[in-house]
Amino acid sequence: MNSFASRYFTDLPKTALSASYWIFVIYLLLPLSLMMAMSFKEASFIAFPIQSWTLDWYAKVLQDQQFLGAVGYSIFIAVATTVIALIIGVWIALLVAAEGIWGRAMIFALACLPAVVPGLINAISMRIFIRVLDIPTGTGAIILGHTVHAVPFVVVMVLTRLRSMPHSLTDAARDLGADNFVAFLRVTVPYLAPALAGSAIFCVLSSIDDFVRTFFLGGYQPTLPMLIFAKVQGGMSPEINAMATIVLIVTAAVGLYAEHFTRRSKA
C-alpha cells in the first residue's frame, strides 16, 4: 500500500504537467481549427453549422489583386528589414563578444531594449521620432520601425552561437594567412549560419505579422495585416478566414523548415 501511494504521488506531478500541456494545445488549436473550418463555408457569413463546403473563397483570395499586392508589399518590407537587422545585429553581437571593449553590458542592454518595450509605446515613440527627423510615413518608416524591433532578437541568437565558437578556429585561419575580414567571411559566418538562418526567419515572420508599428508608421499602401484589419471592419466573412488560413499555413511551414534547418545545422 505504501509503495502504491508513493508511486501515485511521484507520478502525480508528471500527470498534471502532461494534462496542462494538452489543455494548452487544445486551447491554442481549437480557435485556429474553427477559423480554418469557416474558410470552407459556402455561405458568406460566419455561423454554425456548416451545411455545404467550398474552395471558392480560396480561389477568390488568390485572384484578389489587392491581397496579392499586400502580400508582395509585406514580403518586400520583411526582406529589407531582415537584411538590415542582420547586418546591425551581427555587428552588435561581435562588438559585445569582443574582448577589451568598454561598456559591453551597456551596449547589450541598449540593443535589447526594444524587445522589452511594449509594442504600442515603441510605435508611438517611432512615430514621434520620424516626425522630428521629417521622415514621411510609408515604406521607409515601416522598415525602420520593424528593424528596431528585430535587431534585439538577432543580437541574442547570434551572440549565443558566437559564444560557443572555439577561438582556435579563427586563430588557425589567421595562422594560415587570412586577415580578420577573410577569417570572418570563411570561418565566423559559416559557423553562425544556423543562428543567422533562425534570425532571418524570425525577422521575416515578425515583420509580416507586425500590425501596431505598421499602423502608426504606414502610408496609403496596406501591408497584409492592415488589409485584413480593414476587411474585418466591414464584418467577418469566410474570405477573411481564407486569407488568415493561407497566412497561417505558409508561416507554419516556414517556421517548421527553419526549426529543421537549425537542428540539422547544429548536428
TrEMBL record:
Pfam families: BPD_transp_1 (PF00528). PROSITE patterns: ABC_TM1. It is a multi-pass membrane protein. Its main location: membrane. Keywords: Cell membrane, Membrane, Transmembrane, Transmembrane helix, Transport. The chain crosses the membrane at residues 21-50, 70-98, 105-130, 142-162, 183-208, 240-258. It is found in: Cell membrane. Residues 71-258 form the ABC transmembrane type-1 domain. The keyword Transport applies. CDD domains: TM_PBP2. PANTHER family: PUTRESCINE TRANSPORT SYSTEM PERMEASE PROTEIN POTI. Belongs to the binding-protein-dependent transport system permease family. CysTW subfamily. This is ABC transporter permease. It comes from Ancylobacter radicis.
